[in-house]
Amino acid sequence: MSKLYFTYGAMNCGKSAALLQVANNYEERGMTVIVAKPAVDTKGGDAVTSRLGVSRPVDVLIGAGDSVRDVVLPVALAKRTSCILVDEAQFLSEGQVDGLHEIAYGDGIPVMCYGIRTGYLGTGFPGSIRLLEVADELRELRTICRCGKRATMNIRKIDGKPDFADVGHQLAIDDGTTDAVYESVCPRCWHQAKMEWLREKKRN
Amino acid sequence: MSKLYFTYGAMNCGKSAALLQVANNYEERGMTVIVAKPAVDTKGGDAVTSRLGVSRPVDVLIGAGDSVRDVVLPVALAKRTSCILVDEAQFLSEGQVDGLHEIAYGDGIPVMCYGIRTGYLGTGFPGSIRLLEVADELRELRTICRCGKRATMNIRKIDGKPDFADVGHQLAIDDGTTDAVYESVCPRCWHQAKMEWLREKKRN
Amino acid sequence: MSKLYFTYGAMNCGKSAALLQVANNYEERGMTVIVAKPAVDTKGGDAVTSRLGVSRPVDVLIGAGDSVRDVVLPVALAKRTSCILVDEAQFLSEGQVDGLHEIAYGDGIPVMCYGIRTGYLGTGFPGSIRLLEVADELRELRTICRCGKRATMNIRKIDGKPDFADVGHQLAIDDGTTDAVYESVCPRCWHQAKMEWLREKKRN
Amino acid sequence: MSKLYFTYGAMNCGKSAALLQVANNYEERGMTVIVAKPAVDTKGGDAVTSRLGVSRPVDVLIGAGDSVRDVVLPVALAKRTSCILVDEAQFLSEGQVDGLHEIAYGDGIPVMCYGIRTGYLGTGFPGSIRLLEVADELRELRTICRCGKRATMNIRKIDGKPDFADVGHQLAIDDGTTDAVYESVCPRCWHQAKMEWLREKKRN
Questions:
Q1: Which residues, at least 6 apart from A32, have a Cβ–Cβ distance to it below 8 Å?
Q2: Which residues pair with A35 in a beta bridge?
Q3: Do A156 and A98 have their domain in common?
Q4: B137 and B168 belong to one structural domain
């Protein structure tokens, strides 16, 4: 049975490399995959790029208001695709995730989504929340906190200091207009950084 | 490191039995646990009851507007608790889950929550969405669909027929005022039932 | 697709309760399961008994030299079984696990085995080793160490003190002939206890 | 707490890429890792190479009779290593895995091993069996069968046909002396191929 999968993790945990590996695994067996990405993620242009130094062009860019049945399914069917891979899936809308659910369980094409679970405020993105609700398999991709523990959350830093101010978007998209830097951390380091920021804020 | 855990599953998958087993495991080692439950879940009164025939009184009922720091933490500290177990965690509010996150990572007491992932409409409850976002470990408790596959979703039935009408609450609380019956199903059976219901509705 | 599952854990982690819950889940949906157990495990007689206080008769006792195709498959087919549940699976022989693998992938009946991963010497049992090699899904059932960490190993104690002497069998079967007591512990506590026992032994 | 991890999978599922990603994750945070490999694996020489096109030199080659305390631990300590990564871990001896267990739980350095679970006969390697017994966390790395299902086993092919003859070693090491080709498959395809091979053999 085809399924909807969600592989999630903190920032920079290797999601794109994992996606590229799965694409490779399918293609080595003579099967076809297509790679899709929300158009809002302009990082790397029309490619999925891993920090390991591997890259691959995206087959379909999903616009903010697009129906995945309209833009993804026809390409998948035309290419007789064995699997649809979606990078940066946290930027999908709820309705787009529902569309992917339908493709997996109605049309019978497996869909594997990769994305960030939460932003620096510790809250989910529309796409990741919906995937956590309906994906058949949730898999965590792990990375490491500076303290040595497993990192599952993210911190936003301005001038090297954690900053939890709500700047109106969960995660800055790396378009050069901000000098915020992100760091993936364990829940305890995240919690401590937030408490310190709150205390500091109170003082000023 | 103490953590926040979320064990989720479809209805009637054995969440309460799993919780009671963990309580047993701790107590056999001479440790103390407390069991909490949102007060809105009136099923079984002030007890956690498994359909296997095992039961246990609840130590703390969490009211709709309660702060878990005010009602759960003092009991946990007074009893020198090794673990806080929360049943029916889908009914927690977002803020209550944040409070449990703080207890796990700020106060250092492990918190294990058990709950339903989504209601019959396929959408999450406030408590389960927040737990899916911030719990350090997500574990699925599996049950079986009538088709033999793994059940992860739920169907609401009126007079034996699936009914996807939005009745204003995700999941009827079993208080005798409704004759809806729930069945846990796999995503494909859920999707088929919904498509049939939509077609039927269109016809009428 | 039917599969071979192995749910493993340290001693007293709740394996029998988990098995009884799965049996319950199937039967609530009107399906049939059979429960099998190696005959060598005389604990609880011909029943699977959980320390939670729940119990259920065993349908098939598997003798040491039995072929599972001869003793389990006919009962499963006669009862039109949806799932075969095997308790204390660590005591199966390699060949019996291979037979269950064949039943799952050749005859199409799902097989779920529950057992202990390793004995107090930290080495596997024939049945658990073979299941770790070939089971399609490995699931850990967790319990807690006295230090608060996750317990995955076991210690054998004589007069309250850890004893790592190799007594010729991995795990005493609780038949009243030994006063060894077992405790499930985390790998670090297991390692420390073993180092202390080795030092003590050297001194004497 | 440092742990011993085992990430296992069928052949060509992307184990080396996963290892290289973890190394990258640590080093991006300014931490040090060392990469070790059994010397018997001559594939790729003294490097860990992923079919994605990424590669990295090995820090320590572990000889067949080496003690990991003698050859791995000193390098790890000298480099103040945050994590020891071991590729092709199926080729380790039992004693070497026990040594890595001791390094993780006695010396406090996390050890992550990557390897193949079983060879084409469906039986484990000494290193993978021992890791399945004692690793604290078992994680499966998935790949795909030609039938579209999850591949967890391997088939050996001569002239394009599955061959289950026991050639005295579980897995040919790719040294140019054999023209066997390997394919990773799901348990059902593995089982069918084996049954066909047995029937064919009987006929001749």
A1: A26, A79, A80, A81, A82
A2: A85
A3: no
A4: no
CB distance B124–A140 less than 8 Å?
Answer: no
**Residues of A with catalytic annotation?**
88
The one-letter amino acid at B15: K
A33 with A103, same domain: the answer is: yes
What subunits touch chain D, counting only 3 or more CB pairs under 8 A? A, C
Of C28, C31, C54, which has the smallest distance from its Cβ to B12's Cβ?
C28
Task: Show which of A142, A167, A182 is a domain's final residue.
Answer: A142
Is B16's pLDDT higher than 70?
yes
- Model confidence at D130, pLDDT cuts 50, 70, 90, reads very high
Bridge partner list, D25: none
| Boundary residue ending a domain (D90, D123, D141) | D141
* pLDDT band for position C146 (cuts 50, 70, 90): very high
- In angstroms, how far is CA B15 from the centroid of its own chain? 7
Whether pLDDT at C199 is above 80: yes
Nearest chain B residue to A188 by CA: give it.
B105
Contact D52 A20 (CB under 8 A): yes
Nearest residue, CB atoms, D129 vs list C122, C133, C138: C133
The whole-angstrom separation of Cα B99 and Cα B107 is 11
Q: Does one domain contain both B129 and B154?
A: no
Chain A neighbors of D53, CB-CB under 8 A: 53-54
Chains that touch B (3 or more CB pairs under 8 A): A, C
Q: What is the mean pLDDT of residues A16-33?
A: 96
* D143 vs B84: CA distance, rounded Å: 38
Residues B196 and B136 in one domain: no
Residue D94 annotated among the catalytic residues of the structure = no
Are D54 and A51 inside 8 Å of each other by CB? no
Q: Are residues B28 and B117 in the same domain?
A: yes
- Which domain CATH number covers D38? 3.40.50.300
Contacts of B83 in chain C (CB under 8 A): 144
- The residues with which B144 forms a beta bridge, in sequence order, are B150
pLDDT greater than 60 at residue B64: yes
Tokens coding A76 = 């998948």
Residues D34 and D120 in one domain: yes
Q: Which of B4, B104, B123 sits opposite A133 (nearest CB)?
A: B123
Strands of C137-140's sheet in order across = C60-62, C33-38, C83-86, C111-116, C4-9, C137-140
Supply B16's token pair.
């309460």
pLDDT at res. A112? 98
Catalytically active residues of B are: 88
What is the H or E stretch that residue D147 is in?
none
Give the closest of A21, A22, A146 to D29, CB-based.
Answer: A146
Please report, rounded to a whole number, the percentage of residues in chain D having pLDDT higher than 90.
Answer: 84
With pLDDT > 70 as the criterion, what percentage of chain B qualifies? 95
Which residues of B have a CB under 8 Å from any CB of C?
12-14, 17-18, 20-22, 24-26, 28-31, 50-54, 82-83, 110, 143-146, 148
pLDDT in tens, B185-195: 999 999 999 99
D168: left (phi over 0), alpha (psi -120 to 50) or beta: left
Residue D129 lies in domain:
4-141
Residues C136 and C180 occupy one common structural domain = no
* More confident: A41 or D107: D107
* Burial of residue D188, with CB atoms counted within 10 A of its CB: 0-12 exposed, 13-18 middle, 19 or more buried: buried
- Overall number of domains in chain A: 2
DSSP, residue by residue, D149-193: SEE-EEEEEETTEE-----SSSS---SSS---EEEEE-HHHHHHH
**Chain B residues with CB inside 8 Å of C22's CB?**
14, 144
pTM equals 0.95
Note whether A132 and A117 are within 8 A (CB).
yes
| Mutate which: C1, C2, C21, C55, vs B, most B CBs within 10 A | C21
Query: How close D74 comes to chain A (CA, Å)?
Result: 20
Size of interface B-C (CB pairs under 8 A): 69
